[in-house]
Amino acid sequence: MKNYVGLIGLAVMGQNLALNIARKGYSISVYNRTPDRTKEFVEKRVKEEKIYPYYDLKSFVESLEKPRKIILMVKAGQPVDDMINELLPYLEPGDLIIDGGNSYFKDTSRRIRELKEKEILYLGMGVSGGEYGALHGPSLMPGGTKEAYKLVEEMLLKIAAKTEDGPCCTYVGDDSAGHFVKMVHNGIEYAIMQLIAEVYDVMRKVLNMTSEEIGDVFQTWNNGELNSFLMEISYKIMRRKDEETGKPLVEVILDKAEQKGTGKWTSQTALDLGIPTPTLNMAVEARIISHFKDLRVNLSKTLPVPKENLSLNREELIRDLEKALLFGVFISFSQGLWLIDEASKTFNYNIDLSEVLRIWKGGCIIRAKLLNFLREIIKENPQNANLLASEKAVNFLKDKIESAKRISNLGKLTGIPLLCLNSALDYYFALATENLPANLIQAQRDFFGAHTYERIDKEGIFHTEWEKLE
Ligand SMILES: NC(=O)C1=CN([C@@H]2O[C@H](COP(=O)(O)OP(=O)(O)OC[C@H]3O[C@@H](n4cnc5c(N)ncnc54)[C@H](OP(=O)(O)O)[C@@H]3O)[C@@H](O)[C@H]2O)C=CC1
Ligand SMILES: O=C(CO)[C@H](O)[C@H](O)COP(=O)(O)O
């Protein structure tokens, strides 16, 4: 008897995804580069499940029914190419490789191209939900050919998270569409995490709230419009005590945020495609700035930061923070969706944004109650991916903008950096501005480089001789 599917890479994600697949009734062969990890997995975590370990790639591939379906859950980058190259001698035309890691979408396009020549099918599949999601139901974002997707559709729908709107898996689109959407998902994830961190900073520094008190506020918010996975884990984090010191664990964690690349790729891609995503970009910048801990410690002793003593109403401020956070989260999603839509047109992905929002509703890290509302907006006007153009968005943001402004001003008065919130506000103001000062930019460009400009009062391209050249 051959096994239905194979999975390579038994770290956090691979182990849990393999268990999830097996628990849905599929027999699965597993392989990991380091054999000890495979042994440990099978000994410690596999019980009744039809999970079969292999210690060499040839017998792993031979254990699979044809056409073979092999999921890669290995480190993104070169390891994916290495594994594909090691697998190729054992594969036949019609076999399918599914890359479930956080691969860069351009790598995925290249791999699809290269493997097509060998008649090997390939899906680039974003997986979101961390280890819990992988085990109990992640959000799955597969992209590639329909033919490849059809081979595994039934299994993917079974292992994905479920919501009232169906399984959190859909055929996202052609080529690297799946990995593109997962990349932007992560860009939005970075922004929401940073926005939550910023309101946390205000609460602890301006209101002198304890971590436990902040946890209580976060929990209350999680019962309302801000209901989301990231809000939920944040209140749980606030309450966790460090076993060694008895202090809230969050208070003994060093303030240097790491990153593996997906947020940075989102910003780089947005710049390449010419779509503004300042809030997502600022979340990346915030992580980069956080990394300069020693420099910050030194500069904090020398750089003057004027701070005002303010008498504030705690309840009012907390209400403002909640609304400001909602404002920032909405803006972050709207920037990400616009980027996905532009990529869909540029790369012919054919992505249905409403479906993307649907499959983000469950299992994934950015799942949030707000997604229902965003879907309503997109469904109302599928041709316009810019959420801010909808009347619903105008009404939603109307009562949040003042709160966001007050929090932003408070940040200035107290010297608290609010990179994401401020950028969300400025993005909103910029898009709501008929006359930006870009006329001066054009004049400057024309002055020093004869780059020309357009005029507001007549058609054409113009150049001025700003100074006589001798
Ligand atoms: N952790 C998370 O929350 C999430 C992770 N992802 C993505 O899923 C993928 C797997 O993530 P995660 O489980 O965290 O594991 P890691 O990203 O830490 O990768 C570890 C796995 O990759 C294997 N590996 C590394 N280099 C090679 C190589 N050159 N050849 C073969 N195998 C190699 C390791 O094998 P060995 O044991 O031999 O070292 C191990 O199985 C990554 O792309 C990640 O970005 C996606 C969503 C969430
Ligand atoms: O994809 C994920 C969640 O959706 C992974 O957890 C990823 O590692 C998060 O990105 P980073 O490590 O850069 O914070």
UniProtKB/TrEMBL annotation:
Its EC number is 1.1.1.44. It comes from the Bacteria. Pathway: Carbohydrate degradation; pentose phosphate pathway; D-ribulose 5-phosphate from D-glucose 6-phosphate (oxidative stage): step 3/3. The keyword NADP applies. It is an enzyme of class 1 (oxidoreductase). Residues 178-467 form the 6-phosphogluconate dehydrogenase C-terminal domain. Coiled coil: none annotated. Keywords: Gluconate utilization, NADP, Oxidoreductase, Pentose shunt. The active site is at residues 182, 189. It catalyses: 6-phospho-D-gluconate + NADP(+) = D-ribulose 5-phosphate + CO2 + NADPH. GO terms for biological process: D-gluconate metabolic process; pentose-phosphate shunt. Substrate binds at residues 102, 128-130, 185-186, 190, 260, 287, 445, 451. GO terms for molecular function: NADP binding; phosphogluconate dehydrogenase (decarboxylating) activity. NADP(+) binds at residues 9-14, 32-34, 74-76, 102. Belongs to the 6-phosphogluconate dehydrogenase family. Catalyzes the oxidative decarboxylation of 6-phosphogluconate to ribulose 5-phosphate and CO(2), with concomitant reduction of NADP to NADPH. NCBIfam families: gnd (TIGR00873), PRK09287.1 (NF006765). Homodimer. This is 6-phosphogluconate dehydrogenase, decarboxylating. The lineage of its organism: Bacteria, Pseudomonadati, Dictyoglomota, Dictyoglomia, Dictyoglomales.
